[in-house]
Specification:
The protein is mainly alpha-helical and 53 residues long. Helix content is 79%, strand content 0%. The chain has one domain. It is built from 3 helices and no strands.
Length: 53
């Protein structure tokens, strides 16, 4: 999973390279964020329809 891969970048014996960790985090979150922004209306409407029933 993604969290294991991010853990590799923050190995305690070499110190944490925050630039690399930040870049890896952005790359792992970006596809989910883009998908949410594209389907935001359908996502919210599905919750609204489920709450009405």
């Amino acid at each position: 999973p993604l969290t294991v891969g991010l853990g590799v970048f923050s190995a305690p014996e070499t110190g944490v390279n925050w630039a690399t960790v930040s870049a890896a985090t952005l790359l792992s979150i970006a596809p989910l964020l883009v998908a949410f922004l594209l389907f935001q209306r359908q996502f919210v409407q599905s919750f609204l329809r489920a709450g009405i029933r």
